Amino acid sequence: MKILAVHPSPLMYTKIYLRLEPLGLELVAQAVRQAGHEIRLIDLQVESHRDYFKLLQNWRPDVVAFSCNYLANVPEIVDLAKLTKSMLPESFVFVGGHSASFIADRFLEHGEGAIDCILKGEGEAVVPELLQAIEHDRTAIARVPGVVSPFGSGPAPRFVETLAAISPARDLLRHRKKYFIGVLDPCASIEFARGCPWACTFCNKTLFRNKFRERDVDAVLAEVDALVARGVDYIYFIDEIFGVGKQVRVLLEEIARRPLAIGFQSRIDLWDEDTLELLGRAHCVSFECGIESITEEGREDLNKNCKYSTDRIETLLIEARKHIPWVQANLIETTKDEPTEVERFQNRLKANGVWVSEPVPMFPFPGSPQYIQTFGSEPDDNAWERAHEFYLRLFGEHGFSDIQEQHPKSLAELECAC
Ligand code: B12
Ligand SMILES: C[S@@+](CC[C@H](N)C(=O)[O-])C[C@H]1O[C@@H](n2cnc3c(N)ncnc32)[C@H](O)[C@@H]1O
Ligand code: SF4
After folding, report:
1. How remote is the CA of residue 309 from the centroid of ligand 2, in Å?
2. What confidence tens digit (pLDDT) does each residue in 376-401 have?
């Protein structure tokens, strides 16, 4: 079959600050190709709706697969699915990714028949099975793990057991040079590990990226070398937490020998003076970490489980900045931190070149322990509406952070405007 994989348009900041390649979709595309299908990929972060419709018209795919990691992309995907079905009524349209997995039933409802199913979970683990059902017996899709369809739902979503076999179909990307972070381009994304062994209360990882799995270091280096050969000189590790695995030191020593810069998100308590020096040698140019609170009580409340004291955190952030040009520490608003103390902490670090965020209001993501603490049960079909309403009510009174919209609309208002 002919499969068209589609990534939706950019989120606001991806126009001005960073725009990353659709790595998840590239992995799904590779699994589709290995299953013997023809595959093309279009990324609407860098191509237009016009390009998409042209491709539909000229290539006439049998299946269109959308990637939806963010709720902000839902309206666009619903509209495109409807237009796709009106142009190619025989085509099979489905959606995968984080957000699609969280709101599968609602997604189908909004699709009004234009979306044939949602595939929850890690796509590469099960997409060949779904395509087999689509090709031979469409009613069988309701037996595929992670499928939610108007004809019923399959067993629990499947996740990749080992990362040994995964590899992204990077060659399908038509505009490799259009991905960037800040002024560093062309930039590529790589994953070294998936999941995280910690359980911070606010972190939206339990439904999707809980289990920690590490890739083989040689496979990662082979991917790095292939990218360098294509002219990439900046690699962003998209792991939610880079630096946990057993092979991190080996990887960094090898990267130190190569002509490229790297960036990532991590926890400060995974590093010390020696390993920060190694990061400098490995040409790390961007290190972002979640400090969350300037007090041990605050970090405890958020179940951060940080093994360092606040003084040690401060020392290491300043040490990191000696080796790395951009070091960022994120804070979350907590009742345990005195605003004047926060300001002093920020000023001391900023004087040493470390960027510290303003404390950010915590969103009770369905999929975070905080959601269950706040609402007393696992997320249901109304979870996102409930969390959003709660958040607007709470911080509408207290105020949002400096980088947020100060009078955000409710989901109901936003839906009316679509
Ligand atoms: C890069 C990134 C961003 C970038 C995106 C930049 C871009 N597109 O250019 C930026 C910085 C903008 C960003 C912002 C935010 N992000 Co973010 N982000 C990530 C990050 C680090 C990497 C994404 C990635 O490439 N993953 C790797 C690939 C391999 O996985 P994947 O894309 O999920 O794909 C897999 C599956 O989802 C699925 N799949 C994907 N597409 C498809 C398609 C089909 C057809 C199928 C079948 C399957 C499928 O299969 C893939 C392979 O297994 C993830 C963490 C992580 N490591 O995943 C967080 C993450 C996705 N972000 C998260 C969050 C919370 C946010 C923010 C809300 C943070 C905030 N408070 O502002 C914002 C939202 C912005 C917005 N306006 O909506 C959460 C969850 C998001 C959610 N849906 O709830 C994550 C998981 C981090 C976390 N643990 O909290 N983010
Ligand atoms: C920089 S990364 C985390 C990096 C790394 N995993 C860590 O633990 O340090 C994501 C940051 O976004 C912020 N964040 C995540 N979820 C949030 C939520 N639900 N509400 C507010 N801020 C959140 C936190 O400051 C978090 O550390
Ligand atoms: S915030 Fe970081 S350390 Fe905490 S659970 Fe999420 S990824 Fe893991």
Report:
1. 19
2. 999 888 898 999 999 999 888 778 87
